[in-house]
Design brief:
It is an enzyme of class 3 (hydrolase). By secondary structure, this protein is of the alpha/beta class. Helices cover 47% and strands 12% of the residues.
């Protein structure tokens, strides 16, 4: 959560409890990133199970607007293209958000991302470890 460039919230249209978890989850993220404008994708899954629907499309769209994210209702089982389109939209939103930072780190992040290890340093350490075992 600390290093995320975007968030995907998924709930089932056949399970109202999964829908109700979205607001508290968003509030938790807002406590961690109070001023950050991190893109959010709200996905209503199981769109193929309309007879078992407990959450309306209108409720989902309203929640997405309230949370400041985009909304997609889909069926991962029957429409994998829709899943791809939703994630592509999120990637575009993340690109715009990062691009708007003008090369600066986004404010509101509490932890710095860990640096990738230097391969030369790792090789040196491995050689030292192997040579010390042989002695």
């Amino acid at each position: 959560i600390y290093w995320a460039d975007g968030f995907v919230f998924v709930y089932s249209i056949t399970d109202y409890q999964s829908y109700r978890v979205m607001r508290p989850l968003h509030q938790h993220i807002r406590r961690i990133h109070p001023n950050a404008n991190i893109p959010l994708l709200l996905v209503a899954n199981k769109g193929d199970l309309l007879r078992a629907r407990q959450v309306s499309s209108k409720e989902g769209a309203q929640l997405a607007a309230e949370l400041g994210g985009s909304y997609h209702e889909l069926s991962a089982r029957e429409n994998c293209e829709g899943v791809g389109e939703a994630f592509q939209q999120l990637c575009q939103d993340v690109g715009r958000a990062i691009g708007s930072c003008n090369g600066e780190k986004r404010r509101g992040l509490h932890l710095v991302r860990p640096k990738s290890p230097n391969m030369q340093d790792l090789k040196r350490r491995l050689k030292q470890a192997l040579s010390s075992k042989g002695k």
